[in-house]
Structures are given as C-alpha cells and as structure tokens.
Amino acid sequence: MRFALLAVRLLAGYMTGYSGRSLTMADAQRRAVANHRRRLRARGLDRFEVRGLGADRELLRAVAKRLAQADAAAGELRARIEASIGPPVAERGGILEALRRSPLVGAELDLERETGAGRDVGV
Question: How far apart are CA 63 and CA 80, in angstroms?
C-alpha cells in the first residue's frame, strides 16, 4: 500500500505534463542556439520564416545564401529580383498621391459652405 501511494505521487507530476524543466532543449543547446543567433545579428543577418512550395526550398535557400554574402554579385541579384517583382507598395501617403493624380486637380471648384445660424430647436 505504501509503495502504491509513492508511485502515484511520483507519476502525478509526469501525468499532468509538468516536470519542472523544459523538455525541448537542454540548457547547453539553448545557449548554443542563442550564441549562434547573436553572432548572426552581429554580422547584420536576420532570421525570418518564408512560406513556399516544397519544390522551391533549395532555390530559396540558395538565393538567401547568395544575398547574405552582400557583395557586388548579391547586389546585382537583388536588383534583378526587385525589378522582376515590381516597385514596392507605398505604405504611407498612398491616398495623398492618388488625390494629387486626380483629374479634378486645378479644376478650381467652389467648395465653400454657407454659414448660418442653424435651425431653431424647440426646448
């Protein structure tokens, strides 16, 4: 009976999924990954996720590796890719630019409002 109670107590934490430590990576592995990512940031490189077709995985990795070299050939590749994709979409000022391209620019419209006392509201 005493052994059964001890076994239940030992298994209770395990069964709920809490063991007190992370089961994903050991501390040394976590530090190694953090140090590696810190060295990448020091070199000016960022990590990011890209979604694409499985068939394009090696192509995307090759392009990313080539662009990360940051030399003249990488700049040329970057320029060719940007030219084939098109100009970047403006994030700010898009409405203002559209209004400036409007055919009504310079039409000298009279947009003055009449000012008056308003209507009589019964209290």
Answer: 12
Q: Could you tell me where the beta strands, DSSP code E, fall in 2-116?
A: none
CA distance 33 to 22: 15
CB atoms within 10 A of CB 15: 9
Alpha carbons 36 and 45: distance in angstroms, whole number: 11
- Which contacts (CB < 8 Å, 24+ apart) does range 83-88 have? none
Global pTM exceeds 0.85: no
Helix axes 57-68, 72-85, angle to 10 degrees: 130
Local mean pLDDT, 10-residue blocks, the chain (123 residues): 52 54 75 93 88 94 91 93 81 81 86 84 78
